[in-house]
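Example 3.2
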Amino acid sequence: MQKSPGNLTRLLAYAGGHKKLTVLGCALSGVSALISIAPYIFIWYIVRGALRAMPDFSATGGLVSWGWRALWFALAGALIYFAALMCTHLAAFRTARNMRAAAAEHLVEAPLGYFSANESGRLRKQIDDNADMTESLLAHELPDAVGNLVTPLAAIALLFVFDWRMGLVCLAPIGLCIVLLFQMMGGKSAHFFSKYQMAIEDLSAEATEYVRGIPVVKVFQQTVHSFKTFYRSIMNYSKLATDYSMACKKPMVWFTTVLNCTFILLLPLGAILLQGAQDGAGVLADLIFYVLFTPFCAYMTNRLMYAGQAFMEAGEAVRKLDQLLAVKPLPQAQKPASIHGAGVAFENVSFTYPGASAPALQGVSFTAAPGQTVALVGPSGGGKSTAASLIPRFWDAQEGRVLVGGADVRALSQRDLMSHVAFVFQDTRLFKSSILENIRAARPGATREEALAAAHAAQCDDILKKLPQGIDTMVGAKGVYLSGGEQQRVALARAILKDAPIVVLDEATAFADPENEALIQKAFEALARNKTVVMIAHRLSTVQNADQILVLRDGRIVERGAHASLLYQNGEYARMWRDYQTSAQWKVGKEAEV
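Structure, written as tokens:
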């Protein structure tokens, strides 16, 4: 069985040609670590020479040269370390960029329905923040880890060069610290970062939804507790972080204490060794060397802890990226079929969402002939939006066929299918750009006059008239904000400009006020003229003139026919129509009692 590549290997694969810079930076960091040890040796020579020359310091002139050597080696170590970080930073920036690009490029090929099932906050976290974590690892922790591994090996040898007894006293606490380090990073804690990242992603997604709902919270004088999922995410994150901190409390206290108190053991040992020593100056010089050098070893061990944490974070980032890259695009036809006509047909279609236990559609069949309007109505969760999303191939049906222009949508090229279908969403999405560019998104090559004509057909004249720069006005950040109904009309202008023979309308008047609804209905007339239309509606007044009305419940078509014939049947649709009429006539206050 082939062994899967490690996280570091996977990361470096994204570095491309900059992988050599990572290797060079790590090598330079190792060299820098070795050179950084040299000044301590030179200081030992200076201290030993000065102690042996006491009280006559006239013979210590040669010690100055050792001082200069210590300075030059310290500067050389710093410069080499700077060069190492320059190399690793360049490689890290390119790696993070390539990771973001790989995720973004892959998501472009993902099924469109995938974005409805995954919150934008979670996807942004997985792509952006996880790339930042790997950037920190490759830029800092990886070269430091190499230096941290080289230093102990050299330090162990050096600790036993001058006095093996003092070296052993210094080495014992470092060994104990490494044990404590593995205790904090291993065992149950090894899976902490996976849970931690999931908690952060969940918190980010729920926070986005909470911010969007702040007007509702303020109007009804609620608190964060009213958004139970957001509050649950906060408490879950808090508990996870607290439990991990408490689990690491004792090991961390011992780690910090042992690491920084080695000199407490050195001083008594030095005092014992000084008693009866023939070369007291040499023993004292050794003691001073170890007192100075031990904090350096402690510093390296401390950095090793942060490097271990960074490796765990980067491993989790790679895992999250692999999850994104594992999203399979919809299969594309090797020899795409051709579209003939503008008809839409469902042939015994069944579909179940990924991870769902019950099907969203079961055995759905209907035909929308070219130029006809078919309306999908029914209770929420009945399968209306699911059926509509299968036409532009947001998902693929597991059973049956969806036909556009007589061809199975799975046998069509994506470009050909999208050029024949215009989709107007319930939740309109406008880019942070000018209204002109938002309309021209449907057909980038359209002229300004064509875009203006589409805006006029979509009843946008009053919108453009009140804006400071008309159709060139920016919307969104650093621009104007449009109401829900106004945004819907701009989206309809986009669909009109596309001029696709098939139009799918997903509850396009859901958030419109009465005035905007009337204008949107006029825009519908312009959009649907000579087109095949499949529309979803809860306001039954918008579907009275449809050629065919399909009533969906629990994923099945329970009734079908024109408005008048369905009323005559006195079934599900007739009941819905009576309820709609009652709600339309409902009045507030005393008028309802008259």
